[in-house]
Amino acid sequence: MENANEQEDExxxxxxxxxxxxxxxxxxxxxxxxxxxxxxxxxxxFYIMLSEKQTTKALNLGxxxxxxxxxxxxxxxxxxxxxxxxxxxxxxxxADPPSFTLLSKWLSTKMLSHLCSQLDDIWLENQxxxxxxxxxxxxxxxxxxxxKITSPYLLNSHCEKTETNSEPHxxxxxxxxxxTKTEKEKLDSRAIQDVASQELLLKCIIEYDSEExxxxxxxxxxxxxxxxxxxxxxxxxxxxxxxxxxCNACLKSYFVIQIKDGNVKSLDCPDPKCKSQATPLxxxxxxxxxxFAQYDRLLLQSSLQSMDDIVYCPRLECQTxxxxxxxxxxxxxxxxHLTFCFFCRMTYHGVSPCRVRKG
Length: 359
Hints:
This protein is an alpha+beta fold. Helix content is about 35%, strand content about 20%.
């Protein structure tokens, strides 16, 4: 009965310490639970060295990269968490520890096995006492130093399915490439690398960092340099390229005026020395559907007008963009099928002389 009471008290304590239910969720039977543990990085930002293939993938996902003579790096402030599932035996904590599994998307099974072994050691040092808080704090604050993971980090250097160079471009002394059969036999069955394939690993890291960075931004406060009021990030917008932050109210007014005046290519950072552009998604979020439709139409029209091989159908009720073939003056509207002369915009006159273009 004493064990059951201590188990119940520990679950209540974990619920109190980790109030966010995304961090701690007790099991329905109250005999265990799930801890999702964010990792304390050795430094922020944390750099991940990318291969040429990974660089292309990261750019396609919209990531900002840092290029140096040594290589290309992805800069992150958050790495996917460790997930600890645990179950209480009836003899916990008086005699036996909780059974558990430890999952990670980016740490290898071998590295997770080392962490499982360390959790066992922590239990042996504290046998007879409730242990879940000690385990979770170790995983949050000490897992990466324990594994000697430093920045810059070569992402594939700890993936069992990929080979590593003999001298990886990082200070991490652990070199884990293709594992031998003996090494695989030593893996802990409680350690699970929870990613469908190594091809998805980089995407998982980028998406998690983006989501967590957004949460931090929304909870922070910023001084808007337009109205000079301090506002929460949830009421602000940050330009991606320059990282300047302004409140939504000021930016909305600025964007609305520019769009109504037809200056759709001028939705840039209000800082006079900055030329960072707002993304279409940011514009849509601030101005709403109707004005964004006008912005989108004007932007397309402006882009088409800057293209030498694009003209508009001469029919006033049509005005569909038409692409002209190089060296030809014949245009045919794909919508109303009117054939017309590129130069005079009149019905196509074949070999007859053009009234606009002589000779």
